[in-house]
Amino acid sequence: MNKDHRRPLGGPAIRLYPRHLDLDGRLAQTMIVTGYPHDVHAGWADPLLTYPGHVDIAVHVVPVPGQLAAHRLRRRRARLESAWRTDAARGGLEDPLRAAAAEDAALLAERVAGGEARLFRLAVYLTVHAATPEELDAEVRRLSALAGSILVDLAPATYRPLAGWIATLPLGTDPVEAARTMDTDAVAALMPLSSPDLAADLGETTVVYGENVHSGGLVAWDWFNGDLDNGNAVIVILARSGNGKFYLAKLELLRALYMGVRASVIDPTDEYAALADAVGGRRVRLGLPDGRLNPFDLPDTGEQAFTTRILFLHTLVSVMVGALDAAESATLDRAVLATYAERGITRGPATWNRTPPILADLVATLRGTDDEADHAGTAHLLADKLAPFTDGSHRGLFDGLSTATLTSHLTVISLRHLPDELRTTGLLMALDALWSQVRDSAHRQPRLITIDEGWSLLRDAVGAKYLFNFAKNARRHWAGLTLVTQDVADLLATDLGRAVAANAATQILLRQAPQNLDAVCESFHLSHGERQIVATAERGSALLTSGHHRAVLRALASPEEHRLITTDPAELARMDKEDQ
């Protein structure tokens, strides 16, 4: 008989193996929960029920009739009492486990008789899906390890893979019949208690993002929640173009201002200009005379401020001219120290309030290095590399002392007036200036720094390392970081980019491009259902994830907020006409 004729019409081809089955090339193995912890609390099984892999979980609950429940409890108590009496008659020691079981049975019988509890037959099955046997084995091991961490025992449905798979289908049937008897409290504690609403404790930096798509409630989230599994106060907002990431980022920023948070934005395209003007914020336009930031500026305080400033100048020059070798790095270090010394600035904090040098002074120092001290010509070569930034087409960013201040409740640093070749350099300088503000211990308050299209900094290895360190250390200074990007592939293309994204406390994922789905799901450990959400989300809808917290939200703004944050050209044109 032809094998093709054996396949049922319209159904999958199923091949059975001792522990798993093959569903048209996809493998599935069912694990049975055979052991439960003795003492549990509400939501104790959440780590298992929210496992990020492709796992189908079925919980079968069947009530036991009251008369049958009483009969079974009497029989169990009789067996336990008989065993205890037998051991006592033989002079054996009392088994503490048997004594605890007898006490539990007596207490449960009393509660059932008084109508305080009921008995149920409970069975829990987990079907793991994978593409290859190796992936299936690895996924089963990870799931078993997670179950073991919460004192749950798993056993494979050996020689019953088809029955196990059917038990986890939405059919309401249990052909495996591996149930345990439990009371009402135990069953209730196992259930996914929550509504789809977030359940973390909220604090003074809580932001309301919008409506919960599943429950209709509000999604309120504290980006600096100390109870989160991940301590980094970093939010990553990822989306393909045109799906509302700027809208959501501006809404978060505006509502953070409501809560007294001091906010700063690094804006490459002046997207936040109208918002800054409306709330009385300050705009700093890098590349123009009134928006200059001198990288040689020193803070007034800080034990290591001078050393930290020199190290940053190494980072900045590396981004400007490319990676430095050992000789160039040593030459630069000597030149920076000499440049500061010419202005009377040394490692002593008493000299830090003097007028700092500028980049042109550093280039002059490099050119003034005599041939004996620079026999390889390293200083002059480095000066030539820096010349375009002091005397050439790029001088606007470094041509003088600082003219911009970053002390407003909302500061928007615009990169729009910089050429593309200087965007990464400008972004790094802006981030450094904001970091100096964050570390100012004399003015402690919650701060939020939003970096729009931060992937451009992550493309550079030196800049990516700086941003990674910023993200790791922001929390200790009561600061949060929001990274917004539509170039998901570029963000996840480097190790440091993936580290920044994966170590963020919170990820907000709007609709993703099909070519980025695999990378996003792998980086953020999304389940199969969550993959479908980010693949099909409507404009303005997003999946918010943070540890085991999950919520699908739809951004909601008041009419006044909407006027400030919308980027729809048609709406903007209509509003301009209305204002005329």
Lateral strand order in the biggest sheet: 9-8-18-17-16-10-15-14-11-13-12
The biggest sheet, with number of strands, parallel, antiparallel or mixed sense and barrel status, is: 11 strands, mixed
CATH class descriptor name of the largest domain: Alpha Beta
Low-confidence stretches: 1-5
In total, how many beta strands? 18
Treating each run of at least 4 consecutive H or I residues as one helix, how many helices? 21
Number of domains: 3
Please estimate the helix content: 40-55%
CATH architecture of the largest domain: 3-Layer(aba) Sandwich
Structural class: alpha/beta
Q: What is the terminal separation in angstroms?
A: 81 Å
Mean pLDDT: 81
**% residues in beta strands:** 15-25%
Choose one word for the global shape. elongated
Can you identify the CATH superfamily of the largest domain?
Answer: P-loop containing nucleotide triphosphate hydrolases
Cα gyration radius (Å): 32 Å
CATH topology type of the largest domain = Rossmann fold
Protein name: Conjugal transfer protein TraC
InterPro entries: P-loop_NTPase, P-loop_TraG, T4SS_component
Domain TraG P-loop: 445-541
Pfam families: P-loop_TraG (PF19044)
Provide a short characterization of the protein structure.
This is Conjugal transfer protein TraC. By secondary structure, this protein is α/β, with parallel strands linked by helices. It has 21 helices and 18 strands.
